[in-house]
Automatic annotation (TrEMBL):
SUPFAM superfamilies: Peptide methionine sulfoxide reductase. Keywords: Oxidoreductase. The lineage of its organism: Bacteria, Pseudomonadati, Bacteroidota, Flavobacteriia, Flavobacteriales. It comes from Winogradskyella endarachnes. It comes from the Bacteria. It catalyses: [thioredoxin]-disulfide + L-methionine + H2O = L-methionine (S)-S-oxide + [thioredoxin]-dithiol; L-methionyl-[protein] + [thioredoxin]-disulfide + H2O = L-methionyl-(S)-S-oxide-[protein] + [thioredoxin]-dithiol. This is Peptide methionine sulfoxide reductase MsrA. GO terms for molecular function: peptide-methionine (S)-S-oxide reductase activity. Has an important function as a repair enzyme for proteins that have been inactivated by oxidation. Catalyzes the reversible oxidation-reduction of methionine sulfoxide in proteins to methionine. InterPro entries: Met_Sox_Rdtase_MsrA_dom, Met_Sox_Rdtase_MsrA_sf. The keyword Oxidoreductase applies. Residues 6-154 form the Peptide methionine sulphoxide reductase MsrA domain.
Length: 164
């Protein structure tokens, strides 16, 4: 039996990210929520400084933190500051909340690979932020696009080819 790990990322509206990640090999569970902000127990109506984020539970025997970041950098635009699609503001920033030095190093390496790839017209602006408490979002946000299949999303796979 494997020991599952967790990864914490933000890349715009959490609904679209969750919908794309839920079907990835090795992803055991997804939760949307708020991370990296100023208040405890944030809500959708009051989450100053928090990013709309995603907690991924994954099986490291099937996927890796590096593979998760590879997909992350292909399913959102990591070159826009505080914006994805029509969503604007720090809640929609691109961020990786690293839990240890190894994750930070992998994230730094992936950013360098993405920048060197030339796939984007601008450099990556994804922030690397030390892990902060992850606050689960309200239940109506969980699995939102499964509950509302015609709901808004600005996430899609921009590049089929892996960076790694």
């Amino acid at each position: 039996m494997s020991e599952y790990k967790k990864a914490y990322i933000a890349g715009g509206c959490f609904w679209g990210m969750e919908d794309l990640f839920r079907t990835r090999p090795g992803i055991i569970d997804t939760e949307v929520g708020y991370q990296g902000g100023e208040n405890e127990n944030p809500t959708y109506k009051h989450h100053p400084g928090h990013a709309e984020g995603l907690e991924l539970t994954y099986d490291p025997n099937v996927t890796s933190f590096k593979a998760i970041l590879d997909y992350f950098f292909r399913m959102h635009n990591p070159t826009t500051v505080d914006q994805q699609g029509n969503d604007k503001g720090s809640s929609y920033r691109s961020a990786i909340f690293y839990q240890n030095d190894e994750e930070k190093q992998i994230a730094e390496e992936m950013i360098a690979v993405v920048d060197a790839s030339g796939k984007w017209d601008s450099k990556v602006v994804t922030t690397l932020e030390p892990f902060a408490p992850f606050w689960k979002a309200e239940e109506y946000h969980q699995d939102y696009l499964e509950k509302n299949p015609n709901g808004y999303t600005c996430h899609y796979l921009r590049f089929e080819e892996s960076y790694i």
